[in-house]
Design goal:
By secondary structure, the protein is mostly helical. The chain has 2 domains: 151 residues, no CATH class; 65 residues. 72% of the residues lie in helices and 0% in strands. The radius of gyration is 27 Å and the shape is globular. The chain starts with a helix and ends in a 25-residue tail after the last helix.
């Protein structure tokens, strides 16, 4: 793949990430922000002293701040995913550009978000000890890095086993190996549970579902948008001319009537 094609795919990936970010922003505003407000209200009701003064107002956080964060994340995600797509295209199987984009988005959703989420799920603002935020962040990104590396290893193993076992059984073995390795990582990495005993279980569950819905919307819409753009770039439809010039013969002269 030449540099011009990579550059074109990178631009299309960032545009698809922007579009996916807009859709994820709607989900975040409608599903996520009401749960964040409820969690902040719980924190204020259970705080010992006066509520801390806000440097940035909550209204600005839930509108312009949210939009800026989600859209920048979407564009960055789109650029990184487009570069990964350039590497994966043609190497993971004989898939069309659109199918490769869908496959990449699905694997990325599982490896980058779902696997770390199941071990260290998202928590609303009032959950968690501020003194352990560094440890929790490190563990989360460690789990994410392990998940991505294990996913890459599973793809490599599946490709090497395919000639001997066939595509179907090689894929099954690779997926099972990935699941076992992730289970071992879950067992050895320390658990984190800092949810207050009197915190609403319903609110916690709704917040985590909203976080999952945002990522699902982001990755699904990115896969569909980028797949469409990549397909048009890599497999353009032949241009057919709708209008063809036809040479018209001069009309025969009519014979003059005899006088």
């Amino acid at each position: 793949m030449n540099s011009a094609t990579v550059r074109s795919l990178l631009v299309r990936g960032m545009l698809a990430g922007l579009g996916a970010g807009l859709l994820a922003l709607v989900v975040a505003y409608l599903l996520g922000e009401p749960r964040v407000d409820a969690a902040i209200a719980y924190e204020d009701a259970h705080s010992a002293g006066e509520p801390a003064m806000e440097i940035v107002s909550r209204t600005l956080q839930s509108t312009a701040g949210l939009a800026t964060g989600v859209l920048i994340y979407g564009v960055s995600l789109g650029g990184i995913a487009a570069l990964a797509y350039c590497f994966a295209l043609g190497r993971v199987g004989r898939f069309s550009p659109r199918a490769t984009a869908a496959l990449l988005s699905g694997v990325a959703l599982v490896a980058v978000y779902v696997v770390p989420f199941l071990k260290y799920p998202a928590n609303p603002p009032s959950v968690g000890d501020p003194e352990t935020i560094g440890k929790r962040t490190t563990l989360y990104f460690l789990m994410m890095a392990l998940s991505v590396l294990l996913a890459v290893a599973a793809v490599i193993v599946g490709k090497r086993l395919a000639p001997r076992l066939g595509t179907w059984y090689a894929t099954v073995v690779a997926v099972l190996g990935f699941a076992v390795a992730v289970g071992l990582a879950y067992a050895f990495l320390p658990a984190v549970n800092e949810v207050p005993e009197d915190f609403s279980a319903t609110l916690l569950w709704q917040f985590r579902l909203a976080a999952l819905a945002i990522q699902l919307t982001l990755w699904t819409s990115f896969g569909l948008l980028f797949g469409h753009l990549a397909e048009r770039l890599l497999n353009p439809k032949p241009v057919t001319s709708a209008v063809r010039e036809t040479s018209s013969d001069p009309a025969p002269e009519t014979a003059a009537s005899a006088s």
